[in-house]
Specification:
The complex is a heterodimer of chains A (226) and B (149).
Chain A: H1 16-27, H2 31-51, E1 60-61, E2 72-73, H3 74-79, H4 102-109, H5 126-143, E3 149-153, E4 159-165, E5 168-174, E6 183-187, E7 192-195, H6 201-213
Antiparallel strand pairs in A: 1-2, 3-4, 4-5, 5-6, 6-7
Chain B: E1 17-22, E2 47-48, E3 54-55, E4 62-66, H1 72-76, E5 81-89, H2 90-95, E6 100-102, E7 109-112, H3 123-135, E8 137-145
Classes of the chains: A alpha+beta (226), B alpha+beta (149).
Chain lengths: 226, 149
């Protein structure tokens, strides 16, 4: 296809509506997509040049393009993937999506609102949030599974995280300040127990393993972490 | 079933249903739409602020409303922000060994004087909170926020 000596922006041969639509669609896209649109526009101009004013619709291209590309609409052409650009900067998404567990997402949701209501603090303290997130993340990593939990904020900004499985429950209590103790509470239909000494990530992982597997919980934790 | 024999002429009978306001949306169990979590039934501890102000918290007892004396809508409108109402049966609370009295300053209110405090660090108290939560039923889910006017 011969290259036309025209910039689409200044061309008088292209109907204003077509030019505007193509450039509006290309404006916010990556450079390679802009080049792609420019080549499409050039092919449209070439078609008009060859056929005089015979090209009735600006939405079809039937001259100067490979057979596969004939009779495509501009809309179709614009939505398909642009050819890779040479020596051009790669268009990179501004953020990287990283999935997190439901428990971690629910912990993050506690930060949505701030301030106080009738009951007390709405958002957790920095200490409580950091403690709870570390415990939840590490325990889930040790177990190798995500277990759904539901956190709540107490009136002073501490966090209580609850895991449930049937009639078994495990609760992690992270107080608002380091002055109060962290503890883990476990309960089933027949017994309840409170761990307030040496409350570690491993202790929580062991309780969660019990929650999942009952009395066989020791098997689910890697012995190398003990 | 236990009877409320502390002051039978004044205190609520066992058949009384009381309303507990759900002041935080996280008090509803997100994985079981019929359940309220135990945190909804804990008392706030009294505390002394840095400014020297003494905040009583729920020192006198967990505050609930008598369903015979107040309707749910009026109950919700007593707060600035509320997400619903859970109901409790006084007879069941008495069975758990709790003390249920009428609030001397407001006849529509009832106090559960020995409900556990927040983060009790005690297995028995945690168990009691779980039992209370198990017996509770959700009456209303709503999103009430008093307008600032």
């Amino acid at each position: 296809m011969p290259a036309l000596e025209c910039e689409p922006k200044h061309s008088r041969n292209v109907p204003l509506r077509t030019k505007g639509r193509l450039w509006t669609q290309a404006k916010d896209t990556c450079p390679s997509r802009r080049e792609h649109v420019r080549s499409l526009l050039q092919s449209y101009l070439y078609a008009r040049h060859k056929k005089g004013r015979g090209l009735a619709s600006p939405f079809s291209i039937d001259v100067g393009l490979p057979a596969k590309a004939k009779f495509r609409s501009y809309r179709q052409a614009l939505t398909e993937k642009a050819p890779p650009a040479k020596k051009q900067k790669q268009y990179v998404l501004p953020f990287r999506f990283s999935p997190i567990s439901i428990s971690q997402q629910r912990l993050l949701d506690l930060l949505v609102e701030k301030g106080e209501d009738d009951h007390g603090r709405i958002d957790p303290t920095q200490y409580a949030f950091k403690t709870a997130l570390e415990f939840v993340q590490t325990a889930e990593w040790m177990l190798g599974v995500d277990i759904k939990s539901s956190p709540t904020v107490d009136s002073e900004g501490g966090i209580r995280v609850t895991w449930k499985n049937g009639d078994r429950k495990v609760k992690l209590v992270c107080p608002a300040t380091p002055n109060a103790p962290i503890y883990i509470y476990q309960s089933s239909a027949t017994r309840s127990f409170l761990h307030n000494q040496e409350v570690t990530h491993l202790a929580l992982a062991r309780q969660l393993a019990w929650l999942l597997h009952g009395d066989q919980f020791d098997q689910s934790i890697d012995r190398s972490t003990l | 079933m236990a009877t409320n024999s502390i002051n039978p002429l004044i205190d609520p009978p066992c058949s009384t249903i009381v309303y507990r306001l759900i002041l935080k949306k996280e008090w509803f169990d997100p994985d079981d739409t019929t359940r309220v979590k135990a945190e909804a039934f804990t008392r706030r501890r009294p505390k002394l602020l840095d400014t020297g102000v003494d905040v009583p918290g729920d020192d006198d007892g967990l505050s609930v409303f008598d369903s015979f004396r107040i309707d749910p809508q009026t109950c919700i409108e007593t707060t600035n922000r509320c997400y619903g109402i859970a109901t409790l049966h006084v007879g069941t609370l008495l069975d758990y060994g709790l003390t249920v009295i009428r609030d001397p300053s407001d006849r529509a209110r009832i106090l559960i004087t020995d409900a556990p405090f927040e983060n009790p660090n005690d297995a028995t108290a945690e168990r009691l909170l779980d039992d209370i939560a198990e017996s509770a039923r959700i009456k209303i889910r709503c999103r009430h926020k008093r307008s600032q006017s």
